[in-house]
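Researcher: Please translate sequence to structure tokens.
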Amino acid sequence: IYMKERFKIIPEVFLLLIQDGKILLSRRFQTGYEDGKYGLPAGHGEYGETMREGAAWEALEELGITIDPYDLEFALTQHRWSPDADNPHACVGFYFIPKKYTGTLHNAEPEKCDDLQFFHFDQLPTNMVPHVRAVIAAYLAGETYTEFNWEMRQ
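Model: Translation complete:
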């Protein structure tokens, strides 16, 4: 019996850490993806963990803070196309806002991030990962679902 393989989507988790009208951004460094551009604390969803658990893990790994997964408020989802020449694929990003956390916020991965700071929403850096800039705009517009880069699919 022939079974067609199902389309696969890569799950991603992101933190929208917002304080006093500012959002925390990290500048990518030596990662091989969008280095030199600001993005959000993030990672891939892993087998056997919920998206909230994954976001809490990334907070600890990248920022040195502890977040109870249930203290992560869902903000929005972004379905995006990545037209990578060697491996075009789709991703679904789940964006969460921490309601509270413990620990001292710091750059816990200096080998992957060379700057970590809060930016006013109206003064975001020009060198941002494009889909992150788009998702911040969607968040500010009150959207809970957004799509990005689908015009690039072939």
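Researcher: Any highlights?
Model: The first helix runs from residue 51 to 63.
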